[in-house]
């Protein structure tokens, strides 16, 4: 029951890294939404490995096929949309050692502890390849949002890599800049520095973590379902389910601890007939419901667990061992996490939009 | 559909701050678990206002009644457990001004935007009183966990208030110390300093935020359902649904950005026949599944939105206005958030324990 | 997880026959729907025992209280609506013998087998009192449907008691006739005969079963979610969850076996600009989706299990025993089942209306 | 949200009759259950068209592929199991006329009414091909049940075709007899008569309905979740979601109306240390929970809607029209419904077995 996300717009992913493929079923999608396989492919290209020297040299073509739910004329039918990507470039031999040795800070041991069995090759279900299904579903969500909330925009970028930070305010970040540099950071001036940090880590056989930021602009007020499915709670759930994500904050986040209420509160005022706030420490969400301001999120990502340095570990028969990563892996997952973060944000938003339509009849 | 939490151990809360009461229905609870109204009352006392000079002087007796699901002999029946607390000390007049004026950084405006109607008195459904249902359900979860995982321990404490921090490592925190000081911090030496900070903020009509930390000790390995219901994702969902929570991190959290993989990875070794890790940057969770180490979480809380200082705002008819908080409110929610955090952690854990039992038959 | 019904309009009931009370929480209800406690009480009166000499002489006042989710002005808030009825007229002594002896065709043995514990007094959770929550929630559903689909009408009646049948075609059944006779049958001419059959059964210490029919008129086309939540599947689920219901059919039902396709098919024609069908063997549902014709259902109910005659049984310690029913029970549940059937039909319909609004934006 | 079935063992199907294929994702399946593609293929062969002269001559190979969730050694991994069957023998030209003309008693009109678009070729999502996903998932359920409840047996057969009935008591029905005749009835003596009735109907261009019976033997006591997910309610839901099913009854079903309580009640007695019942009008379920006796169900199926006779209808532009079925269709769906009914029964049972394990820890 863990491979389904969403209440009304429901996404179910399946697939191991080295099985037949990776796929997703999107159920509850509104009918008559334009959708083509190219729309899906465009998002997958952004997630794909081998995009630049910063990412793993594995060549995964990741060509999606839409198997159901879309008419020959390219419109959704209202029935489940099945999309899949075949597994191709799978060199299981790279992973032979992994068959019996637990990789530190990977899921090998815990899958064994939970299921008593695991698909060891390539990480199985715990592989980052699983996120293909998320990104494909996110492309469907994007098409639906384009129809219902045409103004709404979701934009993520790399804000920090190791100790290199991009300081640009969220409201000034532009998609074209983010996509123009291989690190996918918002400030082209910092991109080189981040890139060098990643290359340096790789040259040492090491890896780096960082922070991805995400903004949702022009979201309608009224999204989010108190009390348990507050907008920040479902966004947090979505983001913390992304592999390697260790933290999530909305608006002022952990900085809120240091700001007294008198400065933290976002004063209301009227502008252009709309209720607006002077500041946005709330990050666009109050009482779990969007207020029409920018929704601001930040996500912490840990450094890639697979590194080329020798590490202490144990085998599945509980003997001491050492292990050195041999597969082809990203020294830093951040650049490729950007489209995944955007996809998860859209899955949450489209679900809340449809839930709002169910309960209240309209979306503001 | 937003007032229910959990997949197998399902908790549904209801109630506004100034209606008939606040309650919760727990469905899917295992039968033959010892449970008395005192067990529930003990947890509610910790959440209750008026415990010390640090909290609101409102006197809420918060006496729970168990209406169903428990036998006369004090054992759960396997049927839904309904618990409620009557609303008593409700002075609606304190809130008259709120009827038409939106309180900054509260949910007044967004509830209006979403529903087109709101229970304005005392914040209605967005009041912190709603958390009574969570704490009562958490007491049930505690009883179930005591039976299935008797070693498991959940412990939360205040780690930071404003800029005053408690530096004690999680493994050294003791429940008796936390409960011995009104701030509920882990280091008695810091408690006074935190207390002074809170009192000073209140004397200025202001408020403070902070950080609550939570550790789960002796959790069995194997809890958490990849891929969307990873243990950290459901914990994050639970915690970010608590009013005023702005951020959540597990293990190294946002610090992960600054640590290279070679130092971040948690090396495995054998100890006492068990697979253990040398460090715990994973925070007890790998691949979304518990590994048997301490589960470490940190939550950011914003400063209380209701303050005694005058603030700019607008009315529900969109006129500019000013507002000064008049109700009796906590200058800092952190001390009372501690039992709520523990309750939410237990709700997540018990649900995963039962899910694990469903799918895999046993809980390690 | 078994006490919640519905996907978007979610109803959670709780309560045993002899505990603190019986209640329901309705989550996901649209805001700004007029609702008063009288609306709920009116439906409960129809379900209540002691209405006529045909039903149990137990006096259950069944006065509902609305504890949350409705404004002082009598409008729904969009937040969970909690309604409960206190248990009052509980004479546990009537049930003393039941404490250790399993009543034949009751739930005593199976609750023990499942949970290893049971609330023996009055049947506990398996008591028909549990349906109070369903009827109260049905009253909320009725109010919502009145706002969204004002033409829609749900009407149930007793079609058969023992071997006495009411032959009136569904389209000619009138609510005022049904409510005018204590049996709640559709043809006043048959009512006396049914009444005599019930009284005769009771005088022998016996009981009778029968059939309840239900029609939904003016339902919009488009309700029902293929493939698993077809309208007839969710209606069937709802109806078969009513205590004592043993069968469900839609449209031609079991008679379909005897009709060749050429006569069973419902020919389409145009009338008043609408697509209509000449016959209605489909019972208003095709491919799991309503087609705008009358939705026709029939439900089989078994005879009341509690009878005054001596019966063979066993004790909970597995000794042979005999038992004679001593409580005050209906000799025929059909008359009181009518409002329960209507309530369940409305719960299904309102959920599908909101789901349709979520996915397709409009309800035809 | 309608293409998923089950709470813990969750099945999601996708696919239209003439798209890329038909598939299913099974989530929540226990790990380490032996499962091979042959297991799945064996069940699909029983559902496949072209098995005998009684069924459509369409040749659908229906070769399944398992894409995920199963190890190379043929054991389930605990992760989602994706199975699909490619669409091959699709002659869309047979369906040209259907593009604009609504087939009577099919889903063409209602899909248009609901979604405003439909995959007209071959019935799209409403095609009986959709049941491939159910049967494939049922094969997985069968493998799980074989491990957890090895005694449990599910057996369905055709009990009635038109007015030809098979009178064999459920306890005497044998699988080998059912599979030995093309009608899949339980009494070989009646099989010829049923077969002739079907062939005669086809020769007239007509079709026949009937009744399928199903028994679950050796089910453990304790399955079923009061109050809304009573075992008969979830079984009814499952069965009524099968295309063409118009009615469902359990135990005495509609006959219950004619039996007084004194004869309908199932007296308890002890046998071999087990609580048994003398009769089985309850159909193995009391209070919504299995009691260990045979679970007895009957399902009504309508005659195939596609017939070779000319019928009155309308076009999607609301003009009067006539239509004569041209595709290759079964004159009677009953024989092929048998494996589908068994699959749905198993999906319900396995879900309740896992739910029981979650809540109560053991399955009796």
List the helices and strands and how they pair.
4 copies of one chain form a homotetramer.
Chain A: E1 4-5, E2 10-14, E3 21-27, H1 37-47, E4 64-68, E5 81-86, H2 108-115, H3 131-148, E6 153-161, E7 164-165, H4 175-180, H5 188-203, E8 210-217, H6 231-240, E9 245-250, H7 261-264, E10 268-271, E11 274-277, E12 285-286, E13 289-290, E14 295-301, E15 310-314, E16 320-324, H8 334-360
Antiparallel strand pairs in A: 1-2, 2-3, 3-5, 4-5, 6-7, 6-8, 8-14, 9-14, 10-11, 12-13, 15-16
Helix pairs in contact in A: 1-3, 1-8, 3-8, 6-8
Major sheet strand order of chain A: 1-2-3-5-4
Report the helical percentage of chain A: 25-40%
CATH superfamily membership of chain A, which one? Chorismate synthase AroC
The CATH topology of chain A is what?
Answer: Chorismate synthase, AroC fold
Biggest sheet statistics of chain A: 5 strands, antiparallel
Ends distance of chain A:
32 Å
| Highest-level CATH class of chain A | Alpha Beta
The tally of strands of chain A reads 16
Multimer state = homotetramer
CATH architecture of chain A: 4-Layer Sandwich
Largest interface: A-B, 117 and 118 residues
Question: Which spans of chain A have pLDDT < 50 for at least 5 consecutive residues?
Answer: none
Strand content of chain A: 15-25%
Mean pLDDT across the residues of chain A is: 94
Radius of gyration of chain A: 21 Å
Specify the structural class of chain A.
Answer: alpha+beta
Whole-number tally of structural domains of chain A: 1
Shape annotation of chain A: globular
């Amino acid at each position: 029951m863990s491979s389904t996300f969403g209440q009304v717009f429901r996404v179910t992913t399946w697939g191991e890294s080295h099985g037949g493929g990776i796929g997703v079923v999107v159920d509850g999608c509104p009918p008559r939404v334009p959708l083509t396989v190219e729309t899906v492919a465009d998002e997958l290209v952004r997630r794909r490995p081998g995009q630049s020297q910063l990412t793993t040299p594995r060549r995964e073509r990741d060509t999606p096929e839409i198997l159901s739910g879309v008419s020959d004329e390219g419109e959704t039918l209202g029935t489940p949309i099945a999309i899949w990507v075949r597994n191709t470039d799978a060199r299981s031999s790279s992973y032979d050692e992994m068959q019996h040795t637990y990789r530190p800070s990977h899921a090998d041991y815990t899958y064994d502890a939970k299921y008593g069995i695991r698909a060891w090759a390539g990480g199985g279900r715990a592989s980052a390849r699983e996120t293909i299904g998320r990104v494909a579903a996110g492309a469907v969500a994007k098409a639906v949002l384009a129809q219902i909330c045409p103004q709404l925009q979701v934009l993520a970028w790399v804000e920090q890599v190791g100790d290199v930070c991009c300081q640009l305010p969220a409201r000034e970040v532009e998609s074209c800049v983010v996509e123009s540099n291989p690190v996918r950071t918002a400030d082209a001036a910092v991109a080189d520095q981040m890139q060098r940090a990643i290359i340096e880590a790789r040259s040492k056989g090491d890896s780096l973590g960082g922070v991805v930021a995400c903004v949702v602009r022009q979201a309608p007020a009224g999204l989010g379902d108190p009390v348990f499915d507050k907008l920040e709670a479902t966004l947090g759930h979505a983001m913390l389910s992304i592999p390697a994500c260790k933290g999530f904050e909305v608006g002022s986040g952990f900085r809120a601890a240091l700001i007294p209420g008198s400065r933290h509160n976002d004063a209301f005022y009227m502008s252009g007939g709309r209720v607006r706030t002077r500041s946005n420490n709330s990050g666009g969400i109050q009482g779990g419901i969007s207020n029409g301001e920018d929704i601001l999120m930040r996500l912490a990502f840990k450094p890639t667990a697979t590194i080329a340095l020798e590490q202490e570990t144990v085998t599945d028969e509980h003997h001491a061992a050492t292990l050195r990563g041999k597969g082809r892996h990203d020294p830093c997952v951040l650049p490729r996490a950007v489209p995944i973060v955007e996809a998860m944000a859209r899955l949450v938003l489209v679900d809340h939009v449809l839930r709002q339509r169910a309960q209240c009849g309209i979306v503001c």
